[in-house]
Fold:
Amino acid sequence: MAEENIKEKRLGKKMTMIYWKDGKFWLGKLLEHPEIMTQGLTLEELELNLRDAYLMI
Structure:
């Protein structure tokens, strides 16, 4: 994975999503909680999955 492919998106006031494309999936983690990682077929699905994973911890 090349570093130039990694992007960030603010999720509300306190969370930042780090994400990149790998094949057909978008992969991502939370900057503030790097142990929370997930994937999605779209960026929207990835964001929902990260929010759900955060709420589970």
Notes: DSSP finds one helix and four strands in the chain. The two ends are 28 Å apart (CA to CA).
